[in-house]
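Students often ask why we bother encoding 3D structure as a string. The short answer is that it lets us treat folding as translation between two languages. Here is a chain of 75 residues written in the first language.
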Amino acid sequence: MINLAPVAIKDGDALTPSYQGAIQRALHFGIVKLDAEGNLHPKAVITRKEAAELIYNAIEYLQAHPAPATEDVQP
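And here it is in the second language, the structure alphabet:
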């Protein structure tokens, strides 16, 4: 379980409540960033470049923090 201090998002009232946890984690892990005024602009259309940047940031995070190895368990 991850214990995060929530980031204040000025336009947070525009967020869908079911996505708030995922957005807070994405902010914490550096995948998503707020603008200079602290807004996320969740309803704004994004460009292909911005989408590619988000995917790149997510891949970078995953490569830097690999999941623990699991042992093969025989039933």
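Translate back mentally: The chain is about 35% helix and 0% strand. Keep this in mind for the problem set.
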